[in-house]
Amino acid sequence: MNTNNSQPSLSLNAIRLRLNELDDQLLKILSERRTLSLDVAKSKVETAKPVRDAQREQELLVKLINNGKDKYQLDAPYITKIFHTIIEDSVLLQQAYLQNLVNPQESRKPLARVAFLGSKGSYSHLASLEYFSRKNTELIELNCKHFKEVTSTVESGHADFGVLPIENTSSGSINEVYDLLQHTTLYIVGEMTLPIEHCLLAPQEMRLEDIKTLYSHPQPHQQCSEFLSRLNGVTLESCVSTADAMQKVKELNRPDVAAIGNSTTGKLYGLQVVKENIANQTENHTRFIIVARKPVEVSTQIPAKTTLIMSTSQEAGSLVQTLLVLQRYGINMTKLESRPIMGNPWEEMFYVDLEAHLGSVEMQQSISELTKITRHLKVLGCYPIENIKPTQVKLEG
């Protein structure tokens, strides 16, 4: 009895051709889905419905998971990962459409002058490319040597936007940027989170014990501190950015010198990966803010974040009073950071991120009350939340 499949097996070339056909069909379907997502956004303009409908997203994902399992033998994590990406893209697409309606002057700008830290390929540069690609905006790139130059370039009008890293999941808040926000006239108009994948890079293959000098920005040095502690006799040298560090290592072209940075950028500078995944945390992300001279108008249909800076009196419980105001109006605080006020010893400025639209009744009433009980309060910006939280579903079994 012949137990083999009765159908003749396909050749490798035939299999690859069929895979190519299926990939092309997937691209076509994704394009059609994007068009329909845009139609949904247009319909929401008339109905004033919010962009996200958590209940519908959950129901959709559960249905897809069940169908994938029963009809196509696809496991839940695979389907969930794919459709989280699709849903995120759909939400961002709809938000961009609604934002263009309330900011028509911005939607007509196909080019933007953007200031960021470091050379081409730095993490700030990669964040700039990622953020503005979502807006279908081409960049005129303005490289800066330090964070102050980023803000001053925008303040002077030489750049339309500035991109600044504000916090990292491993090394924490970037204090230099927070301190700049005390005195800048700029507004926060956007945010994004970039996954950070640190590698050890060098011009040629090398052993870890041969490294004598390691170049990078101070932030990656902190984020990879556990790995660095296992290296003996290595001198850490700081550069403007990871891209500048890679450029330096390429120019030196020595067998005892390496850099920390992104593998993709490493290829750009002719470096190869010596060791991957050297950060303290595997899930290493940096949040960036986008600043401009004028605030952005945020559609009320879009989830928004408002950032404040404020100082309180030196009396006991003064900070708690401000937090109770936010609690009373049901406003969720996602970040509270304190920094010393320059020139005023022992006094602090508080930076507060709130999940709330500045134009909401709750937010306006909160600001009115906070103004009365704080020594200083300033709104740094209200901007769309573009870090899309994945739809959560409970899986059986």
Automatic annotation (TrEMBL):
Domain Prephenate dehydratase: 113-293
UniProt domain Chorismate mutase: residue ranges: 6-98
UniProt pathway: Metabolic intermediate biosynthesis; prephenate biosynthesis; prephenate from chorismate: step 1/1; Amino-acid biosynthesis; L-phenylalanine biosynthesis; phenylpyruvate from prephenate: step 1/1
Lyase keyword on record: yes
InterPro entries associated with the record: ACT-like_dom_sf, ACT_dom, Chor_mutase/pphenate_deHydtase, Chorismate_II_sf, CM_dom_sf, CM_II_prokaryot, CM_P_1, Preph_deHydtase
UniProt GO molecular function: prephenate dehydratase activity
Annotated function: Catalyzes the Claisen rearrangement of chorismate to prephenate and the decarboxylation/dehydration of prephenate to phenylpyruvate.
Family annotation (NCBIfam families): CM_P_1, PRK11898.1
Protein's UniProt name: Bifunctional chorismate mutase/prephenate dehydratase
